[in-house]
Write a structure and sequence with these properties.
The chain is 62% helix and 3% strand. It has a three-stranded mixed sheet with strand order 1-3-2. The longest helix has 32 residues. The protein is globular.
């Protein structure tokens, strides 16, 4: 009897534990840093190896399963609440059995929800409260360390030098890559293995990036994620790095490295962008370097134009983005978009809006006040990184 009571209360105890862990992480930087440095890597080492056994995305399937479970829970609760025909008097015996089954199902869902909350806390939420990357891996000018990610701490001249460097490198590499008859870039190497190799190389300078990496996997339904304009995703509940197989090939190396950075505990999008950039830009493979420059080009170009305050005369004094680079600077090819829209079950605008709301809510609840705009803070990290190199 005592065991049964304890078992009934256990889901609530698990939820309370998750809440306390969240509170500790928010209140104590030391706790969050210790957790990310010493506990989280061991969790990854165990559970990421398990999910890597499967050739498909376990996290994606879990996402769909969760949606189905919630739908059944809602429909069952609706049926009980409003007493649909099967619950009327003449079906009293059947109704009683169905209610018992539903009660068991609801308790199971409570257990799953408690476990899910704890996993999300341990593999995601706590990570948002550790110290920013520049405080424990110093780079760039020491004078700028206290303002990580603040592009406006740098002058127009410094931002323009960064922008011109990225544009010039991208323009040059674009002419050297192999292309098909339509002009799209080709790559026949082991992109996944190379991405893991580049991240391990980066781990020599950024210790948290060293060690085991799960093999990144494509989304099972990449076209659906294309409707969300999603290049990749880190699934905390399976500790997997997933990428969109439908997107244009030049986006893949940096996206894969970005998601692998999340697996190593760098949960902020600007930091994952930054590390993905460093991994690809430092590669001897020009295809990976091209992916790095294209991966940050839009962010740098946007901040540069904003800082010019529409003074186009100054803009035209700088190297233009080549037609070839502009052609490659896309999410999906026209053919891929046509396939996505042809097979779409839901309207793309609807899917994208829902996805954007979910992303914004998740980031905001975890203390990222600017939501999805935080991706662009990579410009500030790049300005710091190249301080003393480009200017």
């Amino acid at each position: 009897m005592l065991f049964k009571k304890a078992r009934n209360h256990l889901p609530y105890i698990i939820i309370l534990l998750a809440i306390l862990l969240n509170v500790f992480a928010r209140m104590s930087l030391a706790f969050a840093d210790f957790y990310v440095a010493f506990i989280f890597p061991r969790i990854v080492g165990i559970f990421a190896r398990f999910s890597s056994i499967f050739p498909f995305s376990v996290g994606e399937l879990m996402l769909y399963a969760a949606f189905l479970l919630i739908l059944i829970l809602f429909l069952g609760g609706f049926a009980c609440l409003f007493r649909i025909p099967i619950f009327r008097k003449k079906h009293r015996e059947a109704a009683s059995k169905i209610r018992k089954v539903y009660q068991i199902y609801a308790k199971t869902c409570l257990w799953l929800a408690a476990i899910f909350f704890l996993i999300m806390t341990s593999n995601c939420f706590i990570l948002y409260h550790c110290a920013p990357i520049h405080t424990f891996y110093p780079f760039g000018s020491a004078q700028k360390q206290s303002q990580a990610g603040a592009a406006n701490e740098y002058s127009l001249d410094q931002l323009s030098r960064l922008r011109d460097f990225i544009v010039t490198e991208a323009n040059q590499i674009a002419m050297e890559l192999r292309r098909d008859e339509k002009g799209y870039v080709l790559y026949d190497g082991d992109m996944i293995g190379k991405a893991q190799e580049e991240m391990r190389r980066l781990g020599q300078d950024y210790g948290r990036l060293s060690g085991y990496y799960p093999r990144p996997k494509p989304f099972i339904f990449s076209d659906f994620f294309s409707q969300q304009y999603m290049m990749g995703y880190y699934f905390p509940f399976s500790l997997e790095a997933n990428y969109n197989a439908s997107m244009y090939i030049v986006n893949k190396p940096m996206t894969i490295c970005h998601e692998l950075a999340h697996v190593k505990g760098f949960i902020y999008e600007d930091e994952a962008n930054f590390l993905g950039y460093l991994a690809c830009a430092g590669s001897e493979d020009i295809f990976f370097r091209y992916s790095a420059y294209l991966g940050v080009l839009n962010y740098v170009e946007r901040d540069f134009i904003n800082l010019l305050a529409d003074d186009l005369s100054v803009y035209h004094e700088h190297p233009p983005i080549s037609d070839l680079v502009q052609r490659d600077n896309i999410f999906l090819t026209a053919d891929a978009w046509e396939k996505v829209e042809k097979n779409a079950i839901f309207n793309t605008d609807f899917v994208r809006n829902i996805s954007s709301e979910i992303v914004e809510t998740n980031l905001t609840l975890n203390g990222v006040s600017d939501g999805a705009l935080s991706y662009g803070r990579v410009v500030g990290l790049l300005l710091m990184y190249y301080d003393g190199v480009l200017y």
